[in-house]
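pinned: reference chain
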Amino acid sequence: MNVNKTALFHLLVTVAGLATALLPISVLAASGDLFAADNGSNTILKFAPDGTESPFRSGLNGPFGLAFDSSGNVFEGDTGTNTIFKFTPDGTGSTFAFGLSGPIGVAFDSSGNVFEADYNSGMIFKFTPAGTKSPFAAGLSQPVGLAFDSSGNLFEGDVGSNTIFKFTPDGIKSTFAAGLSGPVGLAFDSSGNLFEADYNSGKIFKFTRDGTKTTFASGLSNPTGLAFDSSGNLFEADQGSGTIFVFTPFGTKSTFASGLSGPSGLAFEPPPAAYDFNQDGKPDYVLYNAVTHQTAVWYLNNNVFVGSAIGPTLPANWKVVGVADFNGDNKPDYLLFNSTSHQTAIWYLNNNTFIGGAYGPSLPNGWDLVAVGDFNADGKPDYVLYSPATRQTAIWYLNNNAFVSGDLGPTLPVNWRVVGVADFNGDNKPDYLLFNSSTGQTGIWYLSGPTFVGSAFGPSIVSGYSLIGAADFDRDGKPDYALYSSALQQTAVWYLNNNALTSSAYGPSLPANWSLIAP
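pinned: its C-alpha cells
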C-alpha cells in the first residue's frame, strides 16, 4: 500500500393586469455548483456549471472530505486540526465536532446524521444533527471514502486493507469488494451502481449492486474524490495532476478544471427543497382564498405549523398550478395559468414577497397546465400539459419563462389526472403522481424524460380527502403525499417509501375560505 498520506490529507412587463419589473435572470443557479476541497491550498473552491472558479473558504488545514446537508450547509473534514467544520451557504463557519483523529471522509444519511471516517483511529463516528457523537464502526484500517446507497447502507473505502466494506443501517458489516489499491473515493449513480476512485492504480472502477466489477476509467493520477451531477456525469478529483475531470455516463472524458493544488473531496450543492419558501430546507404549504384571491404561505417543520405570511393576491381568472425556481435564484416562484385565455405566467418571489413577473408561453386550445418539473435535467423547470379531450400529456421545456421545445408524454387512463411531479423511485428523474378522485386510488408513473417506463399503485386516499401533491416532508429523500379535506379543512401528510405508505400524520387545519393548493 503506497497511498501518499501527505497528498491524501495534506425589462417592464404586464402580467395579468399588474405592471411589474422583471428582474435580471440568473444564467447559472447556485444549486448545482461543485465544491472541491483543495488540500494543497487549504481552500474550498466553488465551481459554477461552466467551470468558473471562485474561493468559498480559505485558511483551512488539510481539507479533504466534503458533504452537504439538506439545508445547503457544507461540512468539511479538516485533517490538520482534527475538526469537522460547518459552513452555511454564505460561507459563515462554525465548529461542528473536534478532537477527532484524521477526519477524512464525511457523508450524510437520509435522517440528517453525519458519518465521519476517522482515518487514524480506524473508526466511523456518527453525529446527530445536534452534534451528539457515537461510534458506528471500529477496527477498520485507514477508513477514507464514505457513501450511502438508496437503502441506507453505508459503504466505506478501507485504504489499509484495500477493501470496500458495507454496513447496514444497524451496523452489520460485510465485505463488498476486495483486492483494490487505495479505495479513496466512493459515489453512487442514480441506478445504484457504486463507483470507486482507486488511488494507486489510477483507475475508477464501477460495481453493480451485486458487486460485479468493471473498469470505468484508467490512466488517471491519484484519483481521489468522486461526485455525480444531476445529469449523471461523474466528476473526479485527480490529485496527482491537479485537475478535475468529468466523465459522461458513457465514459467520455473531458477537463472541467485544472491548475489546482491537490483536489480531494468533491460535493455538489444540492438544489433547494421543493416548496421551501423560507429556506430552512423544509417544504411549506401554499394556501389560496377563493373569495379574496389572496395567497398565503404556511411554514412547516414536517407536518407542524411554525408560522405564516400573506403572499401576493392573484388577478381574476388566474390560479397557481405549481411552484418552482424559474429564475435560478434558489427561491420558489409561482407558476400561474389562466384557463380562459390559455396564458401562462411566472411570478418571481422572495419568500412570500412578489418581486417581478413575466408571461410564459400561451397554451394551444384544448390544453391545460397541470404541473411543473425538470424533465430534461438542465436544472430548469418545465411545464406539464394535459388535454382533457384526448387525455394526452405533454412536456414543454423552458428556459425561465421562454419556451425551448416540447415532447408528448404518456396518455392517461379515464378518470385519472396528474396532481404532482416528484422523483419517487430515486433515479433522479421526475415521475407523474396520479389521482383518481372517483375511486380514491393513487398511482405513480415512472418516467425517463417524457417516456413512460413503468407504474405502481400508491395507497388509496381515505374518503373525504383529496391528494394535492407531493413533497419530502420528513426529509428522508423520498416524496410524501399532501392531503386535504375541504369539508373538515384538515390537512394530512402521508409518508411514503416510493409507492408504499409507511406512516401518516395530521397537518394543520386551515381557516374558513382557504384551501391547500401546493404542494
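why pinned: Residues 415 and 436 are 6 Å apart (CA to CA). The helical segments are 5-9.
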